[in-house]
Amino acid sequence: MMIGDKRIRSVNWHITTKCNYKCRFCYVQKLDREILDMKEACSVLSKLKAFRTDVIDIEKINFVGGEPFLHPLFYELLQAAHEMGFVVSIVTNGSMINEKNIHRIAKYVDWVGVSVDSVSNLKEARLGRGMGHHVSHAVEVADLVHEYGIKLKVNTTVTKPTCKENMEPLIQRLKPHRWKVFQMLHIEGQNDGCVRELAVTDSEFQNFTKRHEHISLIGGEKPVFESNEDMIGSYFILSPSGKVISNEGGSYGTFEFEEFLEKQTSVINIEKYVNRGGLYEWADLTTTGTKREINEKIRPEFPPEMLQANM
Ligand code: SF4
Questions:
Q1: In sequence order, which residues have a C-beta less than 8 Å from that of residue 183 and are 6 or more positions away?
Q2: How far apart are CA 209 and CA 61, in angstroms?
Q3: Fold annotation for 8-284
Q4: Which residue, by CA, sits nearest to atom 3 of ligand 1?
Q5: What radius of gyration, in Å, describes the C-alpha atoms of the chain?
Q6: Rounded to 5 degrees, what are φ and ψ at 208?
Q7: Which listed residue, of 44, 52, 63, 217, carries a Cα 20 to 30 Å from 33's Cα?
Q8: Is the distance from the beta carbon of residue 23 to the nearest atom of ligand 1 less than 6 Å?
Q9: Is the beta carbon of 26 within 6 A of some atom in ligand 1?
Q10: Atom of ligand 1 at shortest distance to CA of 29?
Q11: DSSP labels for the chain?
């Protein structure tokens, strides 16, 4: 992938809205029906493959949810996307990742993104992210991802209860290749109920950014911070049924693929996509190793106080 080539190269496909967590800020709570038939799913992948214009040429698919592991065709979708030549990524809450299923996805997946919003198990549970051991489990998941030579991304949503935290020790422990930090986004009709309590102001988000922007990730990469302004209109997103989602105006609208062909530049702002770091060398970053014994050597102690449930 050529970074200088300003085309939209990646898509987020929300294959399901089902989730075993109940994050209060979740902006994917009510979307359309998921595809339950592999033929129909492959037709979406084929359209993405064939969909080449002077502004879009999709190279990487990010399977997201909901919790993508809960989609009945999850493994088949990963395999099909991989065999069609896409760079394959998933974003998961990590709760369902274990040695058995990471082994199953490792052949097909280039990136695993894990959502972690706090250094505190208790705060995560209060946000609805798990039952009180989300951070501890995320550390184990990160180790597994590294052991299997898959690139790790960490996604963090900054909310009122977490915006003053120092996440550096945790991020250094997780060792992601990429860390994306989002200002909690209000999407009308999805997460209206939590806005008053959880939304952070621009200045609170900037303060979080300033505290963390110096952190170096694997390969010297820097974290990517996305304010609400950066996020709106800068993603190519598909609904569970494979329709294109627009988030301009603070709520979701959907288009058929064919309709989107005419509207693409008004639905996605390419400058914003590029400026928020939408293009990066997703195929070339170094991995930390594919063997357990290599990983044991690089595994530092995680400060136990960061996992205290009472933070
Ligand atoms: S884990 Fe993700 S999909 Fe599930 S409720 Fe939380 S934000 Fe939503």
A1: 158, 200, 202, 205, 226, 227, 228, 231
A2: 27
A3: TIM Barrel (3.20.20)
A4: 66
A5: 18
A6: -60, -45
A7: 52
A8: yes
A9: yes
A10: 8
A11: --TTS-SEEEEEEE-----S---TT-S-SS--PPP--HHHHHHHHHHHHH-B-SSEEEEEEEEESS-GGGSTTHHHHHHHHHHTT-EEEEEE-STT--HHHHHHHHTT-SEEEEE---S-HHHHHHHTSSSS-HHHHHHHHHHHHHHTT-EEEEEEEE-GGGTT---HHHHHHH--SEEEEEE----BTTSGGGHHHH---HHHHHHHHHHHTT---GGG---EEE-HHHHTT---EE-TTS-EEE-GGGB-EEE-HHHHHHHHHHHS-HHHHHHTT----TTTSPP--SSHHHHHHH-PPPPGGGG-TT-
pLDDT in tens, the chain (311 residues): 555 567 889 999 999 999 999 999 998 888 889 999 999 999 999 999 998 887 888 999 999 999 999 999 999 999 999 999 999 999 999 999 999 999 999 999 999 999 999 999 999 999 999 999 999 999 999 999 999 999 999 999 999 999 999 999 999 999 999 999 999 999 888 888 888 899 999 999 999 999 999 999 998 999 999 999 888 888 899 999 999 988 777 788 888 877 877 766 667 788 888 887 777 777 665 555 453 333 333 333 344 444 444 33
Side chain identity at 109, as an amino acid letter?
V
Tokens of 154: 């960490």
Phi-psi region of 130 (alpha: psi -120 to 50; beta: other; left: phi over 0): left
Residue where the block lists tokens 């085309």: 7
Tokens describing residue 296? 């044991």
How far is CA 300 from each of CA 203, 230, 304, rounded to the nearest angstrom? 33, 34, 12
What are the domain boundaries of the chain? 8-284
Nearest CA to ligand 1 atom 8: 26
